[in-house]
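Task: sequence in, structure out. Protein: Alcohol dehydrogenase-like N-terminal domain-containing protein.
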Amino acid sequence: MVKAIRVEQLGDPQVLKWEDVEIGEAKEGEVRVRNKAVGVNFIDVYFRTRVYKVPSLPYTPGVEGVGEVTAVGVGVTDMKVGDIVAYSCQPLGSYAEEHILPALQLVPLPPSIHPIVGASIMSKGLTTRYLLQQCFKGVIRFRFMDQSIKPMDRADYRLFFYESV
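Result:
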């Protein structure tokens, strides 16, 4: 059992309850993560207030966070217990001590980024990247301000800027 914030009925913040829940074990292609920090996102409020449809009640809110891998399911070869990872994805459930997620949705968090910062930038970084790629398709070139940052270091979106070509 782990502690989690649960929503049993939709409504204002008073519907959030701190409860014990069973989350199970990581299955094939999944990773169990002990959260170090979670992002509080407008999407969480949208689910709780019926702007977005909730898969089912009760549920644990939250879509983004940073945590330590505590277990890996069958077939997961690119992560191991002890790795620090960031995520911004379904299934809902980051408002919990631990969370089970698809391994393909996780990115390693560089040691230079504090977990609190990592948990707060994932959705914003992914949204920024998506909008730049969709709105300026073929017009944007990414360049890193710090040349030591590898372009594949997907978690550190703070270090890039864009320019017209």
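Residues 140 and 164 are 5 Å apart (CA to CA).
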